[in-house]
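Think of the structure tokens as a kind of shorthand, similar to the way a musician reads notation: each symbol stands for something richer, in this case the local conformation of the backbone. In the example below we present two proteins back to back. Begin with the first one, reading the sequence and then the tokens, and try to describe in your own words what changes along the chain.
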Amino acid sequence: MNHLFAGFSRQTGKLIGLGASYIVIMMVLAIILGLLILVIPGGREIISNLVSGQSSIDEFMHSGDLQEVQPALQFFLVISLIGIALYLPILMAYWFAPALIILDELSIVEALKSSFLACLYNILPFTIYGLAGIIFMVIAAIPFGLGYIILIPVGFISIYKAYADIFHRQVQPAG
């Protein structure tokens, strides 16, 4: 059981600060997306219809006509794409930050910057890793979510392996 919380025995303050900054950033992102919902034309109407139970989704369920839900689907697609575009840089900054704080003893700002730059430099592998992760998450959810019992530890191991490969490459002697 001691091994479970060993990561918090060193750099505890920095890890708490990192977690707190992530929570604040995510709250700001949620506020931005909420404001965008209000600003985008038709957004208020779609949300008020969903909240009041007069959504076009109900009409679609009865009629099967996709034209009924197309405005709502387009609206949520736009909001989702904006959310993803705003979240990706945050994800990149926080991806390796805990490992950099604990193992390399970097400050919070240095860890966030190093993590972001590492992900940016390795954008193609990071993208492939993310897409594969989405596929594995869908597969893990199929057996009532029990696949996550395996996927979560394997995911943490893969993050550590990526950290070790990116930040601590062994240079092979020429010859």
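Once you have a description of the first chain, move to the second and do the same.
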Amino acid sequence: MRPLLPMVMLLAACGDNLPVDEIEEGPATVDEPGAEEPTARFLPDICSVRSWPSVAFADRDVDISVVPTAHGAAIFSVQRSGGPLHGFAIDGRGLLVGKDEGTVIRDDLAFTAVSAAYIDERLVTAAVSDGSVSIDMISDDFGARANLSTARGSVVADLPIAHGRASRIATVGDIDGLTAISFDQAWATTGTHLVTSTEPRSMTATRYLDDSIVAWSTDTTCHVQRVAAGVTSNRNFACRNNRIAVDPAARAGYMVFERDGVVMISDIRVGAESELANQRVLVSFASSPRIVFDGSRYWVSYINAREDVVVGYLQADGSLASMALEGTQPLAEGHELALVNNGVWVFAVDGAGVGAQRVCLKPIY
């Protein structure tokens, strides 16, 4: 990553409602199809850059989780070799809020992985340490926390907790399978149930109306479940390091995952005979895929063979219109895609630190 990019990269259609400083960033670009000539194509382009040199990391081998909030985003991280749970916040412009160096939230355990969610105006983290998952509620300023549950587990989804009809459901995995933990409106645990007794190698989750969709991979199979509805689809192929995004209005979405140095993509079709519909190659010589839906487009990022982050959007024909963020070189868990104030951001930690880029769509004739 270039020196002025020490941790977040932001991707977004420039026609979003993020505030733009025209002196610093230039005038906003109109990028919606139909606002230009009908023959125009649209390609990703870097709009602006943010960096936070005051937020330090021991090295780039980190796991980060980015959580959109009402006013910006919260970014949580742990060193994958084990260490404290750390967090910092940005506003909708990508500027630091609170302590410049961030906050150590927990240092009583050596955490090796973290995921987080913003649910019912509360920040909730799920951090992994030595075979257990600590699920905590965190105050907006990171100054206080309350433990909601500690469960056996070594795998958590990128969205660790979501609604399941009237309750809230967290999912964790270990050698005994995948377990759902229910919380009531007062955040008290109301029970657990075993979703599957097969050990998940990786997990992902997303919101779907008043339910959540969880997908997990074993060594040889892939599974997708709408948790509250109890509808499960199974396929005889692995979907390791998977991520999922859906458009509830269309009752459809996509899952991206890794296989032997290739990023694959599968269709999600809610209500179909098999809700996990198929698989095809999206990008060769690639790893660590991410996917988000911004309301009109599916955005995908991944790490290419040169170890640079690549980002783009799925076109109507299913191909990816993309660009490489050359010099931005995180490790596998050190970058994220997230929607912040209706804009798509790519977050990354690499040798230069932690920084941010916003990506717009540029018309090409």
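Compare your description with these statements about the second chain. The two ends are 30 Å apart (CA to CA).
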